[in-house]
Amino acid sequence: MTALPQPTILGKSLVRDLSALLGAGSVSAEPADLWASSRDCWPRTLLWTKAGRAPHPPDAVAWPRDVAQVQAIVRYAAEQGVALIPFGAGSGVCGGTVAVRGGIALDLKRLAGAPRVDLAARTVDAGAGLNGQRLEELLNAAGGTLGHFPSSIYCSTVGGWLAARSAGQLSSRYGKIEDMVLSVQAVDGTGALLQTIDGPSGGPDLTQLIVGSEGTLAVITGARLRIWPRPTGRWLRGVIFKSTARGLHALHQLMRSGLRPAVLRLYDPLDTLMAGKSGGAALHVPIPGALKALFGKGQREALRLALRAPMLMNRLVNALPGSSLLILGFEGEGEAGVEDARAEGEEALRLCREAGGDDQGSAPGERWLANRYKVSYRQSPLFSAGAFVDTMEVATTWDRLERLYLAVRRAVEGHAFVLAHFSHAYLEGCSIYFTFVGPGGQSTDESSAALGPLARPAQRAEAEREARAAESRYEACWRAALSAVCDEGATLSHHHGVGLAKQVFLPREHGEGMRQLRALKKAFDPKGILNPGKLLL
Amino acid sequence: MTALPQPTILGKSLVRDLSALLGAGSVSAEPADLWASSRDCWPRTLLWTKAGRAPHPPDAVAWPRDVAQVQAIVRYAAEQGVALIPFGAGSGVCGGTVAVRGGIALDLKRLAGAPRVDLAARTVDAGAGLNGQRLEELLNAAGGTLGHFPSSIYCSTVGGWLAARSAGQLSSRYGKIEDMVLSVQAVDGTGALLQTIDGPSGGPDLTQLIVGSEGTLAVITGARLRIWPRPTGRWLRGVIFKSTARGLHALHQLMRSGLRPAVLRLYDPLDTLMAGKSGGAALHVPIPGALKALFGKGQREALRLALRAPMLMNRLVNALPGSSLLILGFEGEGEAGVEDARAEGEEALRLCREAGGDDQGSAPGERWLANRYKVSYRQSPLFSAGAFVDTMEVATTWDRLERLYLAVRRAVEGHAFVLAHFSHAYLEGCSIYFTFVGPGGQSTDESSAALGPLARPAQRAEAEREARAAESRYEACWRAALSAVCDEGATLSHHHGVGLAKQVFLPREHGEGMRQLRALKKAFDPKGILNPGKLLL
How far apart, in whole angstroms, are the C-alpha atoms of residue B135 and residue B151? Predict the structure, then answer.
C-alpha cells in the first residue's frame, strides 16, 4: 500500500497563488494528484510503488489552459524560485518527468485544442498536450497520417515526443520526431515565447536545440509537424535468417538500397524463439508467458527459473540455434498504393534472399501489426511476480552494431535475462532495443503487505531491506549496461530520452559538450527552474 | 587602385606573439595578406575594391597547422581580447568572414590533411580547411561521392560549408550540408574542443547548433560527413512549362512523388528566355552577353539600356510570354545505375507532362551540366562595366513560394533588373535564387583612375561621391528585397549564410530567438572574440 504524498506548506501557497493566476480548477495539491505526478512509466518508479514509496512528489500540479497561462506560471515560478516540471501523459520510461526538488508539475494536457491540419501543405499544427492516438485519428479522418507510432501512442503527447526525441515503429520510413518537426513553439525559463521558423534557419537551428532538451531549456507548447497522405497499401512479411549477423547485414543492405521500408525489425534468437514457441500468436507475448512456452513449465515457475540464474539462462540461450526473424513492411500512397508497396516489398525480399533470408510469408508481419502496442502494457504483472523488467534503446553505426549487441549482453548476463531486437534503422546505423528481466525482489503480494500500515515493525524492516536490495540490483544492471554502451561509443538513448535513468552517463557521450549544455541551461533558464536535476542540469 | 591596409601596432605584436606560439611562417601582417583576408566574394566588397578601399582589414592572418594550434590561438585571443575571424577559402557572398573589429583572420586552409574515407561505412572524416573539389576528387578516387556541389566547389572548404549551411546543386537528392553532417569537431571561444556524437544525440543536438553559426560560437576544425557510392548512371532533361506557376506545381508534385531527383531547377521566364536567345549554349551565360542576345545590341549598350530603367525593363519582361524551363536530372548507383536513373526520369517526365510540361530532350540538361560552375566566376566583369550584380537565395514553403517570388520582384523592380530560378527543392518548400543587376556607378575604368594616387583632388572627390552613391543604391536594393522576404515570412538565407549582408533582418526571422542566440554566444564564447559583429552577436 502506498503512502500518498501529503500537502506541503509550499504546496498550499502554490495552490493559493496559482489559483489567483489561472482561475479555479487549474491547480491542486491533493495527495492523489501529487502521487500521480510523482512517477512516470520508469520501471524504477514501479519499484518505488512496490516499496510503498513516492520519494519525489511535486508540491502542486498545475493545468494551464493556453500558452499565456504557461508563460504566467513560468514567470511566477522564476520569481519564486520554484521548480517547474513539464508533464505530458507520463509515459516516459526514464523518469524524465519525476520531480527531484519538489515544485510544480506542469501538466500540459489541456494544450490540446483541435490541431490545424493542412493536407495540401502536408503540415499539422498541434498543441503540446495533444494525445498521440487522438492526433493520428484526427489526421486519418482528414486523409493524412503523421507516420509516428511509438508503442506509447495511446498514452503520450506531442510535447513529450519532442522533449524526449521519440521514435515510432515506422521510423525507417517516416523518420523520428526530430525529422518530422518543422518548427516549435516554446516558453523559456524567463517566460518568453519562442517561435522557430518553419524552414531552413538563418544561423543556428533553434528548433533542434529545443527538441530533446527534456524540459530543461524551455516548455514546448506546440509544434508544426510534417504529415503524409494516409497510405492506401501495405505489404508485410517475415523473413528468417540463420544468424543475427546475417540479418543485420540484410537490414543494412535494405537501408542502403534506396527502398523505403516502413517496418524493419530484426529479433535476436531468443526473441525469435519466444515468438515461435508461443505458437506464433504474437511476438510481443507477455514475458512470463513466453518463458512458460520456452521451458514448458508453469509461468511463475519458469520465471523463477530464469531469474534465479540469469547468467546460466543467457549462456543457454547463446548455445541455442541462432535464427533471427525479420519483420519487413512497406507502405504505398495514392491509387497505386497497393502495387507500390508490393513492388518495393518484392524487391526487398529479393535483397533478403541474397543475404540468406528465408521467406516466412505474411503471417509473422500481420501478427506483429496486430500486437504492436501490447508490449508496453504488459510489464507491470512481471513486477507483481517479483521480477523487474526494463528496456534500453541505444544506437550506433552499422559497423559497431553487432559488437555493441554482444558487449551489452556480456555486461548484463550476470544481472538479468536479456533479449533484444534491432529496429528504427537509419542510413548510418540502427537502434538496439534490449529487454532485461531480472530478479526484482520477493513476491510482491507479501512484501506489499509487509510494507502496509498494518505490518509489524520487524516484518516491515525486513521488507524495506528487501526493497532496497531490489533497487540496488536493478541499478547494478543498468550501470553495467550503460557502461558497455559508452565503452562502445554508442548513443546512450535513441528515443526514450535520458531522464533520471541515464543522466550520469551523459558526460561520456558529450565530453566537453556538457559545459555547453550547462551554458545553454543558464541562457534559456537563468533561474534554473525548468525540470532541475535532469540532463545533469 | 587599391590602397593596401598598413600593418598596425596590434598587428606587429600579434605577429610576434603568434610566431612564438605557432612557429615561423604561421602568421603575417603583410599588407597583401591583410588585404586578401579583408574581403570575400560579397559583391559589396567588390564595390569597396572598385572604390579603392579595404575598410575592414584584420590586423594579422594566422594559419594554424592542427587543432592544437587552433586551441592555442583561441586561448591567446581570449586572453588578449582580440577578435578571431575563421576563414576558409573566402568564397562567401555575404561578408561573413569580413573582420569588422580588426583582429586575427584565422585561415584554416592548413587543416586539410588526407581525409579518412570509409566507403563501407559511407563516411568521410575531413578537416575544416579541405577544399571542396579536392575532397570530391579524393572521394571519387575511392569510388564515392559527397553529393555536395555548391557552385563555389572549387574555392570553398568543408568548414565554410558547415558554418554557412551550404547547399549543393544536387541537394534535392543528397540534402544540404546540415543533412550530410554526422558529427563536428570544433573549438569554442574558451579553447575547449567539442566533439559531437555521430548518431542521434542524448539531449539537445549540439551538432546542429554549431552548423550555421558562422564562426560566432566555435571554430569548426573538422567533421564526419555521409558519403555515397559514386553514381554510375545519369539522366538529364529539359521540360518547358507555359508559366512559372505551372512549373512550380510540377516541382512540388515531383518532390512529393517519392522520386529522388538530383537536379531540379526551374528558371523564371527571363532566365529561360536568356538561355533560349543566347543560342541555347548555356543557361549561365554571362549576363551582359545574355542582355545582348536579348536586345540584339552591343553588350555594353544592352547593359546600359537595362540599367538605366530597371523598372521599365522588369515590366517589359513581365509582359513577355512566360515560359519556364525546368532542368531535371536523376542519378543511379551500382550495376543498374543507368537503368534506375532512366526509370525514375521517365516517371518524373510523366508527372511533368501531367502538369502541362513539354519535353525538350536531354540537350538543355547536358548544357546545364557542362556550365554549372561558370556563373560564379562571371560577375566581376559586370562591375567593371559599371553595374552591380548580386544574388539572394531565400526559401519558403510551397504555398507561399509564388507569392514570395512576386513580392521580391515588385520590391526590387525600381532598383535592379531581376531574374530568378527555383532550386534546392525539399519536401515542404523550395529556395528561390534571385539575381539582381543594378546600376553600380559610372564606368569603372575612369572612376578607378580617379581614385588612384595620381588623380586630382576635385576629380577624386567626385569619384568618391559616386562610389558612395553606388554603395547606397546597392544597399537600397537589398533592403527592399529582404523587407519583402521577411514580410512574406520566408527564411532570409537558404544556403549563403547571413553574414554582414543580411544580419540586420535576423530579428525578423527569429524574434525572441535572438535573445537565445545572444545567450548562446555568451555561453560558447564568453569573451566575445569569435567573429564578433556577425549574426548581430
Answer: 15
Residues of A in contact with B340 (CB under 8 A): 258
Q: Record the cell numbers describing residue A202, joined without a space.
A: 538563418
**ipTM surpasses cut 0.90:** no
- DSSP result, B270-326: HHHHHHHHTTTS-TT--HHHHHHHHHTS-HHHHHHHHHH-HHHHHHHHHHS---EEE
The full DSSP string for B465-506 is: HHHHHHHHHHHHHHHHHHHHHHHTT-BS-SSS--HHHHGGGH
Query: Taking chain A, what is the end-to-end CA distance rounded to the nearest angstrom?
Result: 33
**A174-213: pLDDT as tens digits:** 999 999 999 999 999 999 999 999 888 888 999 999 999 9
The 3-state DSSP class for residue A373 equals coil
Over residues A458-478, the pLDDT tens digits come to 877 887 788 788 888 889 999
Q: Is the Cβ–Cβ distance between A271 and A420 less than 8 Å?
A: yes
> Per-residue b/e over B192-225, b at no fewer than 16 CB within 10 Å?
bbbbbbbbbbbbbbbbbbbbbbbbbbbbbbbbbb
B513·A120 Cβ contact <8 A? no
Which pLDDT does position A279 carry in this prediction? 36
B201 chain-A contacts, CB cut-off 8 A: 212, 491, 509-510
Half-sphere exposure of B26 (CA within 13 A, CB side): 20
How far apart are the C-alpha atoms of A117 and A302, rounded to whole Å?
Answer: 50
Nearest 10 degrees: Cα torsion B92, B93, B96, B97: 50
Q: What are phi and psi of A251, to 5 degrees?
A: -55, -45
Nearest to A502 among B199, B202, B495 (CB): B202
Residue A64 identity: P
Question: Across the interface, which of B208, B256, B506 has its CB nearest the CB of A202?
Answer: B506
Q: Which helix (H) or strand (E) holds B220?
A: strand B218-226
Nearest CA in chain A to B498: A202
A296 to chain B nearest CA, in Å? 41
Q: Burial-class residue A134 by CB neighbours within 10 Å (0-12, 13-18, 19+).
A: middle
Where residue B275 falls among pLDDT bands split at 50, 70, 90?
Answer: low
* Helix%, strand%, coil% for chain A, nearest 5: 45, 20, 35
All residues of chain A having their beta carbon less than 8 Å from the beta carbon of residue B492 are 202
Measured between CA atoms, the residue of chain A closest to residue B523 is: A519
- Element at A443 (helix H, strand E): none
State the Cα–Cα distance between residues B435 and A50, nearest whole angstrom. 69
* Chain B residues near residue A194 by CB distance under 8 angstroms: 511-513, 516
A173 CA to chain B: closest CA distance, Å?
11
Helices A444-451 and A457-487, interaxial angle, to 10°? 120
**Nearest one of A501, A475, A318, A473 to A393, comparing CA atoms:** A501
The three three-digit cell numbers of residue A459, written as one number: 516484518
Residue A133 has phi, psi (to 5 degrees) of -65, -40
Best CA proximity match to B182, nearest among B214, B212, B205, B203: B205
β A123-127/A27-28 pair status: unpaired
- Cα B403 from Cα B415, distance rounded (Å): 19
Q: Which residues of A touch B226 (CB under 8 A)?
A: 427-428
State whether A502 and B195 contact (CB < 8 Å).
Answer: no
Percent of all residues in chain B with a pLDDT value above 90, rounded to a whole number? 67
Predicted pLDDT of residue B425: 94
Q: For B219-230, how does the pLDDT look when each residue is reduced to its tens digit (9 = 90+)?
A: 999 999 999 999
d(CA A525, CA A502): 22
How many contacts, defined by CB atoms under 8 Å, are there between A and B? 205
**Alpha-carbon distance A356 to A247, whole Å?**
8
Neighbours of A343 (CB within 10 A): 16
